[in-house]
Design brief:
109 residues, five-stranded mixed β-sheet, single chain
């Protein structure tokens, strides 16, 4: 996917999260392991969000491979250490398709 399409999907995801009551903390946090697309907070819980888009849900969700999730978790660890964060957090995904946006909460390996 092109970076431009990725940015559009991330913008839609941010709007969706904001409408669901989340507060945007940061976008596009990078580490040597990878990137966190969106970091949000709600009810004192930090959410690290990976955005995936595709023509349909199945195509988009297939891009959440074990390797990708592992690198994402390492990047989350870097963020936590860099910011000395000691609260609760969760790792989520947002699936963006032409006709829907879906939050997949608490993704793990």
């Amino acid at each position: 996917m092109s970076r431009a399409k990725g940015n559009i999907a991330e913008d839609k995801a941010c709007t969706f999260m904001y409408e669901q009551g989340f507060e945007i903390v940061e976008r596009n946090f990078y580490s040597r392991f990878g990137e966190i697309d969106i970091i949000v907070t709600k009810e004192n819980v930090l959410h690290f969000v990976e955005v995936k888009s595709g023509e349909n849900y199945e195509l988009a969700i297939q891009n959440l491979t074990p390797r990708k999730i592992s690198r994402f978790i390492k990047t989350c660890d870097v963020y936590i250490k860099k910011n000395a964060y000691e609260g609760d957090y969760v790792i989520d995904a947002i699936i963006v398709t032409p006709h829907s946006i879906e939050l997949v909460e608490n993704i793990t390996l």
